[in-house]
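Exercise 3.2. Students should predict the tertiary structure of the chain below and write it as structure tokens, then compare their answer with the key that follows.

Predict this chain's 3D structure.
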Amino acid sequence: MNQLENRKYLLIFVALVLAGLLCYFIFRIGRSKTSENFPSFVERLVIVKRVIDGDTIELNNGERVRLVGINAPELYHDPPEPGGLEAKEFLENLCLAGSTVGLNVDDMKPHDFYDRTLAVVYVLVDGKWINANAELLKHGFAEILFIPPSEFNPWEWLED
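Answer key:
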């Protein structure tokens, strides 16, 4: 081989190594630390746009998620039901606007009559994934609302 061919192969080799490193770093940057450590019961990670009321959130993509297995007092009735504002504020403190939460969609009934996604919402608190639906129940901001079919048993959440 002459010197020109050696340079050509060296240049191709260096370009391939650089391309591989670039792909590796793009992949690593694209993965958040949260997504690397989420548990198997979290089916997908989503970003909260806002809390609508004590049992419904809206995601950045416009999707609305109804927290399955619970029912919080209605905020948008005339007059609002007692405890509705407190339930919303409690959920807002768990599901901050712009934060990442995990969803476990009800496989037996993924959507309700209003086409909201029915799911358990998980929030990351001090490195641990917490069931927001259960927290609303445990703190008295919601009641159990079990509408079969559902893969979730909200009574079990109160046993923990």
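Discussion points: Residues 29-35 have pLDDT under 50 and may be disordered. DSSP finds five helices and eight strands in the chain.
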